[in-house]
Amino acid sequence: MQLKQFQNQVSDLLLRHRSLMDVLSKFDQSNASIHRAVVKAVTECGCIEIQAQKQTYSTEMTLEQAKELLENHLQGQMCDQCKEAVVSELGKNLFYMSSLCNLLDIDLEDTVSKESKKCATLGFFNLS
Question: Where does the source fall among the domains of life (predicted)?
Fold first, then answer.
């Protein structure tokens, strides 16, 4: 399913969440729910662990060098139950993001496309 089609589907389903304030609070709440689902995978299930330390890199590194050096701090893999919980929360988050886009008359697919072009143009240090 394309993003535009999903965004239209969300618009058709929005009855209760037509208020900008309601959508903003639900979107924020869904972000927290994603965070909580990942934390529970670490603290309750234990299927993943976090082994974090300072990451050292240089602006002179190539993208490939940075990918080899920098770590994601994760050990293990999410079990099916934890992955399902995270996917569910990500779906809700996407729903509310689409709702917010609808209310603000923003095309989600166009937004993703613009961000992709920006990433391609700015490259490695895009999000620094």
Answer: Bacteria
Q: What is the mean pLDDT of each run of 10 residues along the chain (128 residues)?
A: 87 77 94 97 97 83 80 93 98 95 94 89 61
- Residue 74 has phi, psi (to 5 degrees) of -100, 140
Residue partners of 16: CB distance under 8 A and separation at least 6 = 22
> DSSP characters for the chain?
--HHHHHHHHHHH-SS--SHHHHHHHHHHHHHHHHHHHHHIIIII-SEEE--------TTS-HHHHHHH----EEE---HHHHHHHHHHHHHHHHHHHHHHHHTT--HHHHHHHHHHHHHHHGGGTT-
* Structural domain harbouring 29: 3-125
